[in-house]
Write a structure and sequence with these properties.
Length: about 210
């Protein structure tokens, strides 16, 4: 949701703003009362029901969209117990379960459907093996401060499949027309329905980065 004084953007000219490293602000997953769901970039309505006990109240994470189309994401619950014996392959069943359930990560490539405001993560490797080789849809809301609707935030043009020649983000003679103040961008990703403890849930994850 757009905050006070922020403008939601999502046209193709603004997709360059997705490129970069994003820090997690919040992650909330809610059970849905009905299956609903979508397999393509045509849905993504958030769940309204009970909050899923997942990742805790202060999760940490990083999301990276590279200019060449690569992506990775890390999500971690704070306060996971350390393995008492210090052996990463020799934890107790309870320690291993807490470590796995409290950390989610994957990598692969991404593509963007600008008209549907949807990012598709094409997963090549994942801590959760069922995701390997799948496409995961994330509907996005990208917010920028007022007055900044340019696509120069990441420097250069084009995310995946959007390259339009060289983009060094500056003028021809290296002259910059005044230094810009740092801007904070907010990206909200809404997941497609996910099966969690036998019920379908939808997540809303908020990310921020400064450009």
């Amino acid at each position: 949701m757009a905050g006070s004084g922020e403008v939601a953007v999502g046209g193709e000219a603004d997709l360059d703003l997705l490129v970069g490293a994003w820090r997690l602000v919040s992650a909330e997953y809610r059970y849905q009362d009905q299956a609903g769901g979508s397999d393509g970039c045509a849905g993504g309505a958030g769940g309204d029901g009970e909050v899923v006990a997942y990742l805790g109240d202060a999760p940490q994470g990083m999301l990276v969209y590279a200019r060449g189309g690569e992506m990775s994401v890390q999500l971690m619950a704070c306060g996971r117990p350390a393995f008492q014996n210090g052996d990463r392959l020799g934890g107790s069943d309870a320690e291993v379960r807490a470590a796995f359930e409290g950390y989610h990560s994957y990598f692969g490539r991404y593509s963007v459907d600008a008209s549907a405001r949807c990012v598709v993560h094409h997963i090549e490797g994942c801590a959760y093996p069922n995701f390997v080789g799948t496409d995961q849809q994330r509907w996005f809301s990208l917010e920028v401060p007022p007055g900044d609707t340019s696509s120069s935030g990441g420097g250069g043009s084009g995310g995946p499949e959007k390259a339009q020649g060289s983009g060094d983000g500056g003028g021809e003679s290296g002259g910059r027309v005044g230094a810009r103040e740092p801007r904070e961008l907010t990206l909200t990703l809404t997941t497609s329905p996910l099966l969690m403890r036998g019920r379908l849930a939808v997540g809303a994850l908020m990310w921020r980065r400064t450009v």
